[in-house]
Structure formats: structure tokens, C-alpha cells
Amino acid sequence: MANYIHVPEGVPVVPKFKVTVDENDFRSGALKLMKELRPHWKPSEVKMKCFTDGITNKLIGCYVGSVMQEVVLVRIYGYKTELFVDRENEVKSFRVLQAHRCAPRLHCTFTNGLCYEFLQGTALEPEHIRSPSIFRQIARQLAKYHAIHAHNGWLPKSDLWLKMGKYFSLVPTHFPDPGQNHRFSQEVPSAECLREEMLWLQQSLSVLGSPVVLCHNDLLCKNIIYNQSAGATAPPAGEGNVKFIDYEYAGYNYQAYDIGNHFNEFAGVNEVDYSLYPGRDLQLMWLRAYLEAYKEHKDQCEEVSPTEVEVLYVQVNRFALASHFFWGLWALIQAKYSTIDFDFLGYAILRFNQYFKMKPEVTALPFP
Predict the structure, then answer these.
(1) C-alpha to C-alpha distance for 311 and 178, rounded to whole angstroms
(2) How far apart are CA 253 and CA 213, in angstroms?
(3) Are strands 106-110 and 212-215 parallel, antiparallel or unpaired?
(4) What is the dihedral of CA 139, 146, 325, 310, to 10 degrees?
């Protein structure tokens, strides 16, 4: 599906270096990259900070001096992530978003990762994204993404069902560890059940009329960077701007999926609490702000009607089901392969449980 993303002419070419960075002993590999990217830095003076928020890859910040000013981020791809992340597509998405001033600068790629500009700011927490002053900015920024044309005149199609099918084929049938395997067999739906649900999702959601747009597809809190302006003391103060990072899963998808996926992320990742899923009133305010910005970017002059907001509300809440299912499958694959210390099996169980809990509620929502 990578050829759906069309990088416009004039966008800077990204150099690729034949360097492999060891995730457990990363300094020597990172220094080889800095020699190419920052030749004026003395290797002995380069400091490195390991960021711990991600659960897919390893992220290292390289800099010189006493403060983290000019930081080069080195992202080392997680083990076996090429099974479910299209790295060519990621780089294309990165370049397109950079061309539209929606992404930091991509410095280079290397054998098992990429280097890019560090965005100054604060990675948000679930309590921040509920603040009206913040969520309106998030809504407007997502609308800007969704209005980007990156398909060279083709009518874009979602690759959601293709990806979901691929993930399903990669889900393990068992685990070597007896305790983990018992948990898997007892608490994860059977392969037959998952196949039936996947078919139901495709049949029921693909007919809802949600437009296919360029999506981020992974808008969790930590992928939203809030940059405070002078005078603002913390994200809830409101003055400032938001930017999104990490485009591993970016690509063409249903508009309502991207928003529903973000709403699911109100619950957090490390300590998931689905009671934090936004209620109807908050969603309607969010969706109105989004639609107003989306129409602005699409040069549509008419005002946003209550019916438009209601239609999007139903679409988004139904597509939130697909988000739970997608990340449930993803977590099962990660449980088998990932070297990162995270309870991926437990996360998969959480996502599937929430899927089945939400399903009757959101399928009962009437279209206006």
C-alpha cells in the first residue's frame, strides 16, 4: 500500500546510511550517525538520553552541551516490527507531512531506524487532552492532516482491512511459556471468533460513508507534543500549540477511524482506564471544532450543521470498535516478538474486552 502516498516534487531527499544501531549498546552506532549528521560535534562530547515512553521502538536523544537544545533523535526499530510496520510508507508519510509543516525534519534513515528533529515541548497525558483549550487544538491539527492530498490524483482507498487481515495471519497460536499460554487460551477470543468479528467489522463499517483521508492512525497522548508559549505554565493553561509525532502507522484510512482511535487513547496506555473515554458532550464539541477546521482547509464555506456533527459522532464511535480490534491483534503479535518490557498480552486482553463491551452500545446508535 506504500505507493498510495505520493511525495510531491521538491521535497528534500532523505539520505540513507548503512549503519546498524544495537538497541542494547547503541552509543557506537549513534556516533557513526552523528559523524554524518553533525560532523562538527566532538564524539567525546556527545551526550545521549534514552526516552522510555514508546512500546514499539527504542528512542535515543543525541546532543552536546549542558541543555537539550539541538537534539537529534535516533529511533531504533523494535525487533520484528517490520512484520506489521511498512517502513517505506512511514518515510513517505514523514516527508509528505514535513512538506506541509506538520512534522519535524527527517534527517536520515539507517539500516534499522531513522533520525529526525526533536520537537521542543511536553508529551501530553490523558488529563491534558480533556482540556477544551487543548482538545480543540488537537482537533484542528488532525483536520489539517486529513485535508492533505498525497495520492497524486488517485481516489485513495483505506488499507485498514488489508492490514487487519495481515495482522490476523501473524497472531500466534500458542506461547512457549505455560502461564502465558494458559492466559492466552483462557482470556483471548478464539481464532474463529476473531475471524468472524473481523468480517463483521468490514461489512458493517465500510458502508458508513466515512471519507478516506491521510491519517495518523496512532494518536495516543505521548504522540502529541504541546509547545507552551511564553507565560503558559502547563498544558492546561492553553496558550501554545500542538504537533503530532511518530508516523509508523500513518496512511490512508477512514476519517472516523483516526478520530475514534484517538478517543480510545483518552484511557491511557500504561494504566488503561476506559471510564476516561470521552462522553457525548465532549465528543460533540471536539467534532464540531474538527469539522470547522476541516472545512476551512478544504475551502468549503458553509457552516457545520448539527446533523453533520451527529453523523460523524456515530461513525467515530462505531469505528472506535475497529481501533480496539486492530490494536488487540497488534498486541498479540508484539507479545510474541517484542523485546520491550511491557505486558502486551494483558494489553490485548484489555482491548478485546473493551471491544465486546462497546459493541452493543455503539451499534445501537441511530444515524440522524
Answers:
(1) 47
(2) 6
(3) unpaired
(4) 60
Strand ranges across the sheet with 72-76? 16-17, 106-110, 113-117, 72-76, 58-63, 47-51
pTM: 0.93
Q: 58-63 and 47-51: which strand pairing?
A: antiparallel
Q: Phi, psi (5° rounding) for residue 295?
A: -65, -35
| Cβ-Cβ contacts under 8 Å for 129 (sequence gap 6 or more) | 135, 138, 221, 224, 265, 266
The letter for the amino acid at 153 is G
> In this structure, are residues 173 and 191 in contact, taking their beta carbons and an 8 Å threshold?
yes
Hey, how many other C-beta atoms are within 10 angstroms of the C-beta on 96?
A: 23
User: pLDDT (tens digit, 0 to 9) for every residue of the chain, 368 residues total?
Assistant: 445 788 888 888 999 999 999 988 999 999 999 999 999 999 999 999 998 666 678 899 999 988 777 899 999 998 888 888 889 999 999 999 999 999 999 999 999 999 999 998 889 999 999 999 999 999 999 999 999 988 888 889 999 999 999 999 999 999 999 999 999 999 999 999 999 999 999 999 999 999 999 999 999 999 999 987 644 445 554 456 899 999 999 999 999 999 999 999 999 988 899 999 999 999 999 999 999 999 999 989 889 999 999 999 999 999 999 999 999 999 999 999 988 889 999 999 999 999 999 999 999 999 88
Residue 144 identity (one-letter amino acid)? K
282's CB contacts (< 8 A; 6+ apart) are 130, 135
CB atoms within 10 A of CB 116: 22
Helix (H) or strand (E) holding 224: strand 224-228
What cell was used for 287?
467534532
